Amino acid sequence: MTQSDSLTYDVVVIGAGPVGENVADRTRAAGLSTAIVESELVGGECSYWACMPSKALLRPVIARADARRLPGLARSVQEPLDAASVLSRRDEFTSHWKDDGQVQWVEGIGADLYRGQGRLAGARTVEVTGPDGTRRTLTARHAVAVCTGSAAALPPLPGLAEARPWTSREATSAKSAPGRLLVVGGGVVAVEMATAWQALGSRVTMLVRGDGGLLARMEPFAGELVAEALTEAGVDIRTGVSVESVTRENGTVVAVTDAGDRLEADEILFATGREPRTADIGLETVGLEPGSWLEVDDSLRVTGHDWLYAVGDVNHRALLTHQGKYQARIAGAAIAARASGVPILESDPWGAHAATADHDAVPQVVFTDPEAASVGPTLAEAERAGHRVRAVDVPIAVAGSSLYGDGYKGRARMVVDLEDEIVRGVTFVGPGVGELIHSATVAVAGRVPVSRLWHAVPSYPTISEVWLRLLEAYRDN
């Protein structure tokens, strides 16, 4: 093991996923020298094991479902999906798990990349242990940004480790469809992977703890409509079921439930939550708890540390790539402003240095068939927060939806704040609604009055006409 000289930068970023890349991009654009450290592939979870491969798997599934709703196409798409072609296209989107292109991008913005495990070693100091054991010490003049993301959390079940369960990583990178797949969980990863692998030839059984159903963090009707469609597609959904133990016997996974049922499968996916990737990054050297989520202010600065930032999943504000990239832009602007001595207006909630959208304007799309998309709080969440609100519900039954596909089935909810008459939250469920959610995000983030939305005329004939139905229902009831 060798020791190199210490190197000094204005900013050191730990983690080169989309969040870390965007922090580095913004600080470099501001003229700050920046180092970025990555222990795995440059591009991170989203590029290789999450957003990109999962959506590459799901897109043919959704396209086929849409085609089957159209006379003239329906009879042409009755054959099973060509799983080999779908997986091959997935591999193209992950660059075959090689990060050459991402490395070139980092070099192109002028940041220095260090491969290896980055650990804090005191204030403003990061020690990097390279793959060959070489150690480098990077010192930051202004800021260190922790952008290490999150990892799948596995429950402490007897036999689980030896059973080699799938997490989201294995589910998005598998080389073939298992004959039988158990999916434990009912959240986004669970429903998306159940959708994909059922369509690619697996016989999928979902085990959902409790009676809350699927997509419990969205409006109740979202999970209900997705569950109905999954069941129609052949997925066996069992709610109120907990897994007590998992073993692998002669290649077969055996899961035993709390009811004593013994379920066999070729693979088992646990999609039961996430945990921060902060256990081995030296948090203890700066007085923080290893393995913990990091509390931050709206400029993404860690509480009690004027030089340390935590951006993306690690701060547990919104575990979504697009929100992490949004936070990265905010953090980069805040770091640059503080480095140049420019005062940050803490009182401006919508200024360039405040991640205000994390609180009440977080959008999300679930790429199932039907899609589920939402932004802002649900009705229940808004009521728990003390807002006087009213929910407006309408079926998505407009000219645009009927043209989109025969038998179109969807639903929309708008949560209106009765004090200010602004839209606090919106949920759409139905084919193609993922492309509607940005309009709702603009309304929620911009606190657009309902009276003003009357003058935002939806084009005819599009599914966006559902906005008119929502506004009419609010006015007339």
Distance between the termini: 73 Å
User: According to CATH, what is the topology of the largest domain?
Assistant: FAD/NAD(P)-binding domain
What does the largest sheet look like? 7 strands, mixed
- Please report the total strand number as a whole number: 21
Would you identify the regions where 5 or more consecutive residues have pLDDT less than 50? none
User: What is the number of domains?
Assistant: 3
Strand fraction band? 15-25%
The CATH class of the largest domain is Alpha Beta
Provide the gyration radius in Å. Answer: 24 Å
Helix percentage: 25-40%
CATH architecture of the largest domain: 3-Layer(bba) Sandwich
Structural class designation: alpha/beta
Give a description of the structure:
The structure is a single chain. It contains 15 helices and 21 strands. The chain is an alpha/beta fold and 477 residues long. It folds into 3 domains: 172 residues, FAD/NAD(P)-binding domain (3-Layer(bba) Sandwich), CATH 3.50.50; 112 residues, 3-Layer(bba) Sandwich (FAD/NAD(P)-binding domain); 107 residues, 2-Layer Sandwich (Enolase-like, domain 1). Strands 1, 2, 3, 4, 5, 6 and 16 form a 7-stranded mixed beta sheet that branches. Strands 17-18-21-20-19 form a 5-stranded antiparallel beta sheet, sandwiched between helices. It has a 4-stranded parallel beta sheet with strand order 10-9-8-14. Helix 1 packs parallel to helix 9. The longest helix is centred in the last third of the chain and has 19 residues. The protein starts with 6 loop residues before the first strand and ends with a helix. The model has no long low-confidence stretch (mean pLDDT 96).
